[in-house]
Amino acid sequence: MIAIGRRRPFEVTGRFVLVCFVGFFVVVAVMNAIMIRFAVTTFGGVETESSYKAGLAFKAEVASSVAQQALGWNVDVRIDPRGQGSVMNIAVRDAAGTPVPGLVIDVNLAHPADRRKDVAVTATEQSAGSYRAMTPPALGRRTVSLELSQNGERVFRSIDRIVLP
Fold it and tell me: Cα(107)–Cα(123) distance, rounded to whole angstroms?
């Protein structure tokens, strides 16, 4: 008598084990390839190119900060976002309130996670102590770094976080 509709019991064969074993490692390899691609094409995680060199420069940065405080300068930055970028108006006054002319001001709008989206410009002097920089569109959170130089030497540095609409 032949039983109709009755199946054979499932057997684990050598071929089935081999297919499962190879399939598992194929899935792992594909996922590793996807994760490696995301890791390489997104934020690299490097904030400082060389922490050793940054450590050596730390004493110089501290001395520069003390000298900057001794100047007593007041640097006022006003950012006016526009459709095609932003206008940064920078007013620099010394401790007595007198405008400080003849500075070179480098402005950097750094993206918090992607260096490829950083924007760097140099401000031009409009009048004594008044400078202007035009930046291309840079929306969202940014770290604004201002470096004021006089006679080739940095005399003032300011770093602030902002949100551009």
Answer: 7
In a domain, 48, yes or no: no
86 Cα distance to chain centroid = 18
- For residues 110 and 156, membership in a common domain is answered with yes
Q: Per-residue pLDDT for the chain (165 aa), expressed as one digit of tens each?
A: 565 667 788 889 999 999 999 999 999 999 999 999 988 887 666 667 788 888 888 888 888 888 888 888 888 888 887 777 788 888 888 888 888 888 898 988 888 887 788 888 888 888 888 899 888 776 778 888 889 888 888 888 888 888 876
Question: What is the number of domains present in the chain?
Answer: 2
Residue 65, domain member (yes or no): no
- Per the domain annotation, does 84 fall within a domain? yes
- What are the tokens at 142? 């940014």
Rounded Cα distance between 123 and 10, Å, is: 77
What b-and-e string marks burial along 18-46, b requiring 16 or more CB atoms within 10 Å of the CB? eeeeeeeeeeeeeeeeeeeeeeeeeeeee
Range of the domain at 101: 73-164
